[in-house]
Write a structure and sequence with these properties.
Length: 197
């Protein structure tokens, strides 16, 4: 309903910001790591938003980029994860770190967020693993300019074609030093670190 707001920061708190948009003040809840990076009061900003409507309240949740907003929307699809919990997770892990944690089964990183226990962290991983794009994780982890990124990505695709899961392929390829390795050699080295299917 409200895709984004562009306005002047009227008030900045730890986990929210009040934006003056054409004379109307909108309170927008945000991850703590994002509010800390916002400029000071009186500055103009653009915030991508999600409007959460409940029986007793309408709340706006905001993010400085669309990737974080998309991660938030994915998180709230998980049973037991509401908007506040999703905000807490994205306050500890940015969108890229969250994707890497899901692909690598790193429930410990996810459970560091306030209000997220080990069971919920594992449920997040199970529910989101098939919804996370492995290519996006590599671009986030290695950077598009990194020459080894395409070699690692291809090696993961080969391992997936051999029947290994995306997370197993990612872990195995990440454990190998890729400097100067061809895809074939990287696959061979990664296979040594993997258990049989």
């Amino acid at each position: 309903m409200i895709a984004f707001l562009r306005g002047i920061i009227e008030e900045k708190n730890i986990d929210s910001v009040t934006l003056d948009v054409g004379g109307v003040g909108y309170e927008v809840f945000m991850p703590v790591n994002m509010t800390a990076k916002l400029p000071g009061e009186g500055s103009e900003v653009k915030i991508y938003t999600y409007l959460n409507v409940r029986e007793d309240a309408m709340q706006l949740f905001g993010f400085t980029d669309k990737i974080s907003l998309d991660s938030f929307k994915l998180l709230i699809t998980v049973n037991g994860v509401g908007p506040k919990a999703a905000l807490s997770i994205l306050g500890k892990l940015d969108a890229d770190a969250l994707r890497v944690a899901v692909i690598t089964d790193d429930d410990k990183s996810i459970s560091k967020a306030n209000g997220i226990g080990p069971k919920t962290a594992k449920r997040i991983i199970v529910d989101l693993k098939d919804k996370i794009d492995l290519e996006a994780v590599y671009e986030a982890k290695l950077g598009e300019a990194d020459e080894s990124a395409s070699v690692r990505k291809e090696a993961c695709e080969v391992l997936a074609a051999l029947g290994y899961s995306q997370s197993a392929a990612y872990k195995a390829v990440s454990s190998v030093e890729t400097e100067g390795l061809s895809v074939d050699k990287l696959v061979s080295a990664a296979l040594k670190n993997m258990s049989p299917i």
